[in-house]
Amino acid sequence: MVVTNDSMSEAYLNFYGCVVKVVSLDQKCVENARRDFSYFFCPQPPKEPPSVTIRLHREAPPRTPAQAKRVLQTKEGICYEYERIRYVDYSGKALARYDFRSEEGEAFSPDDNILHEISYVMILSRVGEMLDRKGIHRVHSVGVAIKGSAAICLLPMGGGKTTLGLELMKEKDCFLLSDEITAIDRSLHVLPFPLRIGVRATERVAPEIPARHLRSFHTIAHGTKTLIDLEVFMQKVATEPARLEAVMLGVRKDFKKPEIKRLSKLTALYHILKNITLAYQLPQTKAYFFRLSPGYFVTFVGILFSRIWRGVRIARSVNCYRLCLTGNRSEDAKLMANLLRKRENKETGGRARDSGGDRALL
What we know:
6 helices, globular, five-stranded mixed barrel, alpha+beta, 21 strands, ten-stranded mixed beta sheet, 30% helix, Phosphoenolpyruvate Carboxykinase, domain 3
């Protein structure tokens, strides 16, 4: 659980070598971060120093320095810079500041929901850039694994990724890689990247889920959600990377039954590049990664080319499909899982024949 020393609470998270330290006098602030990223939680402080340190203050926000210059605006607030430190003013309700040189950030607000949201987005934004530098690129999609093979499904915001992920976990041999962000490495393997499950206020939460694993979370831009702790589904979460075998473009319309259609390489390339290159709809904000310095421009261009090349490789070597979804979530999930099973069986059969052929030659 969260470690408390001298009234200060802290937690460590390890995202594939990117270590984040979250600190606060308010234990609930740190506990929210631990529950959001429980898959990456470190019970003991790592030996290596943190890559990112975030301090959360449940108190009235200070003022932005008068000398600070306005540099950009996001949906959440206005960004300023002064002495190479980024300030984000959330309409006077909160203030965040981030020093990209030391990778240290702070957030101030008396509102627990706003502090929670800032910490969540700040962590994902900074970790996202660091993973990009490692060659691990993220896609806004739901991902599942069956016997070492992975499929990801691209759906727009509010398109039902979480619902589809929950249904897929009901399949006996299907394990969740993530219901929101899938991470793909240089070898085209999908790394587990599960976060807390977020269910919109209009959707029903299964009554068997204990109340202690539920939290109400009001976001600045996307309304209220019910958060479900990952511990509830931990037995159905993948623990190892899985090779990417299928990419699906989810289309939710009034289809009578779910269907899968093969996409052309060109169509697949367009949608993959849109999602992987532009980090389309990922839960992050430019407030915590976009800079105007020449050094960052070089880094950004390098990341951009790496994402483009990753997208080209996926479109060329991975089968891509259009997944026509219906209102029947169970049938949608079964169709997606069955396609992955068929591909896995085909691959297994091919390997077995190759192995048999080798033995015959010997």
